[in-house]
Amino acid sequence: QVQLVESGGGLVQAGGSLRLSCGASGYTFRSYAMGWFRQAPGNERDFVAAISWGGSSTYYADSVKGRFTISRDNAKNTLYLQMDSLKPEDTAFYYCGRGFVWGSTRPADFDSWGQGTQVRVSS
What we know:
The chain is mainly β and about 120 residues long. Helices cover about 0% and strands about 50% of the residues.
């Protein structure tokens, strides 16, 4: 079955960097767009970034544009999120999802969420 496993989260000071990974299995990874979302306690799941199946196209939430970079390695079935210049408001659980509607920022247009990885940014 489809499985996504996020990793790479942790505690970092404001201004620091983290690189998240999402390992995919159970389907043809290179055939699907992928996305990153995040969810803070008590909040809804918010869009962060998405990448096309081949990796040539990306789009980002305004709140992370210029600081985060989404990428993928189809040979390794892995999705990445490089997060630089982190801010305390970036604190959340981060989830990857398989995308079905290009250009969408709605969680409902992505599926197969992993368990998430926690990112905490201290001020």
